[in-house]
Amino acid sequence: MSSETFRSEDAAVPHPWKHHTVLLSEAVAALQVQPGACYVDATFGRGGHARGILQALGARGRLLAFDKDPQAVEAAESLAASDTRFSIQHQGFAQIAALEPASVDGLLMDLGVSSPQIDDPQRGFSFRHDGPLDMRMDPSRGRSVADWLAQASVQEMAEVIRDYGEERFAGPIAKAIDRRRREHGPLLRTAELAQVVAGAVKTREPGKDPATRTFQAFRIFINAELEELQQALEASLKVLRPQGRLVVISFHSLEDRIVKQFMAHQARQVFDRRVPMAAAAPVRLKLRGRVMPSQAEVAANPRARSAVMRVAERTEAP
Questions:
Q1: Model confidence over 163-197: pLDDT tens digits?
Q2: In Å, how far are 203, 218, 256, 317 from 229, measured between CA atoms?
Q3: Domains along the chain?
């Protein structure tokens, strides 16, 4: 896992922050884009993968994208205005469940947080830049990290840091946050949180900031990222047509574990041991491999180094 978790990005946007799309050609190839088919980019970001898919589509093809981030939606609306084959929904990708059954020929999920989000201090995602302690993918909805930390118990904070950040110093960090807010008031800035965490973490992983895992944990928790991923994966089985491709790019072990286990479970027959005579649950996916960034891509874009792309294909409808 990288020092911070990034989702790949590309395309000119009205900010100074840019990023190269990770596994661009590999993802489009894995989708096996057909000119007149229908595809979903479940995490538009700044449109790198979307543009790659549109380049492979014909005049009758369609691409629907989802994103929570208002800035990403703004960029997508600009694309939609110039290309009638494309449309965007300002929603999280779990909302693919609302699509018609067996209506999609390929579904791409590029997970994590984007470089424009990380690099903009006002979004509050990064311990490298001081800014408001927010971390919401959609700043117009839900609680910020600062709001949650103001009322969370020590046990709640420790559980989130441990479960979503895989941080072995979760307990000491939670106690340090509690002590800081009792003595000096609520934590409101990313630099304040990073300083508290650094004081509570006794040993550092080589090349990694001590706040890495805590920031990851709070971001994943406040945006319900893993829960939404589970929902979207389940929904993919409903919306994909037979031979439709599911392509998921992950950037840290928690996400990749969920994707790997889901695909593996759906790729084998499962018998209910409680009902020995019952038929096995049908195989719903065929595994089509795992792809990692090339050495050349990682050398050109170090943020790609933690990416893992898993590919599966929807089987024939039972």
A1: 999 999 999 999 999 999 999 999 999 999 999 99
A2: 32, 16, 10, 23
A3: 24-115+225-314 (3.40.50.150), 138-222 (1.10.150.170)
